[in-house]
Amino acid sequence: MEKTWNNKAWFLVLPVLVLVAFSAVIPLMTVVNYSVQDTFGNNVFFWAGTEWFEELLSSSRFWEAMVRNLIFSFIILAIEVPLGIFIALNMPKKGWGVPVCLVLMALPLLIPWNVVGTIWQVFGRNDIGLLGYYVNALGIDYNYVQDPFDAWVTVIVMDVWHWTSLVVLLCYAGLVSIPDAFYQAAKIDGASRWAVFRYIQLPKMNRVLLIAVLLRFMDSFMIYTEPFVVTGGGPGNSTTFLSIDLVKTALGQFDLGPAAAMSLVYFLIVLLLSWVFYTVMTNYDAER
Amino acid sequence: MNFDLTWMAWTWPTAAFFGTIFLLLCGMAAWEYASPGGNPRVGVLRFETTRGDRLFLSLLGSAFIHLAWLGLVGSNLWWALALSVVYAVGVFRYV
Q1: Which domain covers residue B64, as residue numbers?
Q2: pLDDT average per 10 residues of sequence, chain A (288 residues)
């Protein structure tokens, strides 16, 4: 029997295309237009060519923010992914503990970014904050407002607190989908706990881990609200990540041209790194 | 209804840039219509890529070639464009 083709189904994709056009493509096109022009307001633009890109690529401020952002994302992934897997492995698989753990894990994810920032801003203060006060009482000199290292620790711990749950929930979803037969076979073969993890659980979690790594990388690379609320990018510029720098340029200084050029370079880097992550992990999966 | 698009600050160079991207996508659609399946193959990167993947790699790589040229050489981008075309041909031939 000959297979019938009905191309009318393509019309079903139209709403998505319109949505993506208005939410992503048109704003991106506008940013490209702004990146080669300069404006002093009143919607009057002057052609600037590649000037903003040249200025950006030779700007130490941009590269420093980029390095900070890459280091931040690397630390976040190095902590949240193993920690998320560890917690998911130790969560109950049946009984009343399951809903309790799931609700507890989901709680940080339900809190808006600016509220998380405010919570940690107060929590870390060494005069009225629970964390800051007791850490200082233990004899550790902790002051995230003045010390760049303390500011970094605070921002990282805050992000781990906020987002590890996402990795946990994704890994847990992967773990509960493994049929019991796999564990029974492993038991018959006398597999160790490590062997069960390495050859059954980890491969079965591979796809959800891919999503977790991608989401956490993109999110941490584009982080803005939490560090902005907690440290405002300081002390000095020590926690000024790319997005904070971008907002300072675009809204603080109203330099739309340089900000648009920065946005595009930022976008290309996110696109490249996400593609690398995606390709490496999907091909690793395909080889298996 | 007012279709004023001056807020988007269009210029001829940016319009030409997006027009080229649009034409490339139309060309890819026509190619797919003429030869369906995306021509998947394993190239020098040692993993399977389709025509769409190769176009994505060409465009992304071209963007970085232009940025690198701006940062390292200068603002005359015609050589960067030529290099990008050579790169894209290489990607479509070997990746």
Answers
A1: 49-95
A2: 72 91 90 92 87 93 93 96 95 90 93 92 91 92 92 95 95 91 92 92 88 90 91 90 92 91 93 86 71
Residue B74 falls inside a structural domain: yes
Give B-chain residues touching A283 at CB under 8 angstroms. 47
In chain A, residues with a C-beta closer than 8 Å to the C-beta of B7 are 30, 43
Per CATH, which fold does A60-287 belong to?
MetI-like fold (1.10.3720)
Reported ipTM: the value is 0.91
Q: Is the pTM of this model over 0.90?
A: no
Q: How far is B79 from chain A (nearest CA, A)?
A: 15
Q: Can you give the three-state secondary structure of chain A, one letter per residue?
A: CCCCCCHHHHHHHHHHHHHHHHHHHHHHHHHHHHHCEEECCCCCEEECCCHHHHHHHCCHHHHHHHHHHHHHHHHHHHHHHHHHHHHHHHCCCCCCHHHHHHHHHHHHHHCCHHHHHHHHHHHCCCCCCHHHHHHHHCCCCCCCCCCHHHHHHHHHHHHHHHHHHHHHHHHHHHHHCCCHHHHHHHHHCCCCHHHHHHHHHHHHHHHHHHHHHHHHHHHHHCCCHHHHHHCCCCCCCCCCCHHHHHHHHHHHCCCHHHHHHHHHHHHHHHHHHHHHHHHHHHHHHHHC
Cβ contacts (< 8 Å) between A45 and chain B: which residues?
9
Tell me which residues of chain B have a C-beta less than 8 Å from any C-beta of chain A: 6-11, 13-14, 17-18, 47-48, 56, 60, 63-64, 67, 70-71, 75, 77
Residue B41 lies in a domain: no
List chain A domain ranges. Answer: 60-287
The total number of structural domains that make up chain B? 1
